[in-house]
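User: I'm curious whether this sequence folds into something compact or stays loose and floppy. Could you predict its structure so I can see for myself?
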Amino acid sequence: MSSGATVTVVERCAISPPPRSTPPATLPLTFFDIPWLFFSPSQPIFFFSSASAAAAVPKLKHSLSLALTHFFPLAGKLALSAEPRLEYNDTDSVLLIVAAAPDGGAFKNLAGNHRRSCGDFRRLVPEMGGGDGPVLAVQITVFPEMGISIGFALRNAAADWRTFNNFLKEWAWICKNGAGGRHVASHDRSVILDTSGLRSFFLTEFWKLKNEIKESNYYKSSNNDIVRATFVLGPKEMGEIKKWILTRSDLLFGSTQLLLSPYVVACAFIWVCWMKAHWCTDASVVHYFGFIAGGLTRLPFAVPSNYAGNCVGFGRSAARRGELVGEDGVVHAAKAIGDTVKKLNVDMLSGARNWISEWEELRESELHITVSGSPKLDLYDLDFGWGRPVKLEEVSIHNHNAISLSESREVIGGIEIGVALPPLKMDAFTTLFNKV
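Assistant: Here's the prediction. I'll summarize afterward.
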């Protein structure tokens, strides 16, 4: 499938939970959900290599219906009234698109790590805008004799990646094994305790900014001149980066103990490569690195592990450009990210009132970078009956200055990094990354 090729839509259908399996429901958005109203939908895509996978499309439809029994808000709608909420009625459904690629030859190209056109990936995921409306759409694309891709458009206000991963595992389990899924979701919003009035504060912020900024700023179309590639950091490479950080940290920060988890080390290295690939002459300008942190283990109140909704906080690390692009750039980056993680570990909600205002600064500038996904999710274990995915991608990073992170499929303990950049900047990033 070249950049000019298109896929052919074979079918559009509405998939609902089985009749009378799920009563109508209204779920208020919590203070964890509301900040995600500013984000364009996530667009993950999974590639499965199997010559017979196309024959499973009817089974995928049926098992999706059964999985939605437990994750019914995903079949519902987002209603942005004075009190934003998720609504589900028995007439609601998930749009499922079945498409066909002109031939199977493009499958290996798209499911690789090498540089590819972003435009080709946009044809494999559903489009979804903002405002009121559905929260999930699915597209199954058949590559003859090679395999299929399953792409999604997900409104993040409805579910974080932990919740969506549970839904995917439920769907895959039912598809592979028949009825009797493993995940029974909890939709009880009362478990999210709001003792500081964050929900009211965020609603005020949302309506103020929503009226000031055009919706098109949140739901931009990707530029076909952008290319994407996947990079992998294994334990060996991360160990070498960590060793370098430790040899320099005493000289720079004295006895200060740095938090150097694999996540922090990988993000620090990527941040420096990204900043060096983006030209800026002012060494004093501040760059930001934005990421999310899971709340189940960080909150002062208990949230059940099967809670189906957002439960993540926002972290934003800062460093001056002169620090990041210098000889000790990765050391400064690691300290900045690690210090932010430490603060989130102690009290994830202490800076919560700044979540929306701080992340607005990241949105429209190449000086900053955000992270989508997490290497802690076992997304490569997803199995609908024809084995694990051969590749996964997050298409939405094309729209923003963002990278995607996931666990590595091939390298145990490794991290896959999805990057989308203009070709010349991708050249620079690749050269810098390969120096590790």
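Summary: The radius of gyration is 21 Å. Residues 214-222 have pLDDT under 50 and may be disordered.
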